[in-house]
Amino acid sequence: MVRGGRGRPSTMLSVNDDLVTLALDIRPNQAIVAVVDLSGRFLSHESIMTASSPEAAISKIIKKMRSLQGKYKNKTFEGIGVSVPGRIDPVTHRLLMAPNLKWDGFDIRSALEKAMGLQVEIDNDANACLLSELWSGRLEGVRNAVLIAVSEGLGTAILAGGQLHSGFNGLAGEFGHIPIDPKGPICGCGQRGCWEMFASSRAALRTYRKLSRRSHLTDVQGLLRQVQDKDPFALKAIKSQAVALGRGLRLVTAALSPEKILITGELTSCWDVIGPVVQQELEAGMLAGPAPQLTTAGDGYLARLSGGAALLLQRHSHYHRSTHVSRTIKREKRSRV
Q: I want to staple 160 with a disulfide (CB 3.0 to 4.6 A). Which of 41, 165, 166, 303 is the partner?
């Protein structure tokens, strides 16, 4: 027999299956929309091609969200969590910098809130992925970590002293836009030879097209399929990306000295091929002492959607906790009068 403790009877807590969130992962050429329950389970997810115009793209996204809402009429939607490949102004919540998306200054949050009538939370994709790791408990006990989100670009999120750190204006952690080769390709940020120009998915595709005549290959999923099929050019391209990724981690270890580095993105589906290469370069680039623990984070394709959902749930629950505490204090004050 289990004995209860003193005080009020214990209350069994369970996830309300009727409550869900919309998660949105915006990428340069497509967007992925999902319905996620409060336990982080995906009920559905669909991708759509987007136009370069932010207004046209958001219009298509809203149409898809309404379609998904119609499929789950028996569910209550708590809000929308959005991950973007760029930085968000912490004051205006507009896109501050998104070199690969080129929607700078566009107010995604207000556009979605006005159309959908739901609370919207938005952040950088790397920050969202790191928050997902924290929310799920997979970083329990870790106080200093860095997450690298590898996609069309290279995003970085920082956990310092147990707190997410984004700096004074939200731009902290843009290691992907630190030049490492003054003779390298011009980056979307305007500089030449940035780290992401060698370590991103676009870099791997560029290398593959130089090596192979399969010039029609335009997406990283296709490249990774070629890696699984042991295409020698694909293997060489992905390993070149892995070398650049590992060498660039010296920027991270020298600046932040994390105890753990997490890598997320589609390339993690081939981690058995590239992981040892990244590990070797990481260890070779250490200033002193052992290298941080290197691991992957989340599903490469869905990680940013999980991050968007976690972003909404974390801030939403914080709001409700704050509101509950505020109401409790007010009731206590009235009872004393």
A: 165
CB-based burial of residue 330 (10 Å sphere; 0-12 exposed, 13-18 middle, 19+ buried)?
A: exposed
The answer to whether residues 115 and 154 belong to one domain is no
- 38/265 Cα distance (integer angstroms): 23
Rounded distance between C-alpha atoms, residue 205 and residue 238, angstroms: 8
Domain total of the chain: 2
Does the residue 337 lie in any domain? no
Residues 187 and 89 occupy one common structural domain = no
CA distance 107 to 192: 29
Over residues 200-227, the pLDDT tens digits come to 999 999 999 999 876 678 889 899 999 9
pLDDT digits (tens, 9 = 90+) for 43-64: 999 999 988 899 999 999 999 9
Q: Which DSSP symbol is given to 27?
A: -
pLDDT tens by residue, 281-294: 999 999 999 999 99
Domain containing residue 199: CATH number = 3.30.420.40
Residues in the chain, total: 337
Q: What is the DSSP string of 184-246?
A: SPBPTTS-BSBTHHHHSHHHHHHHHHHH-S-TT--SHHHHHHHHHTT-HHHHHHHHHHHHHHH
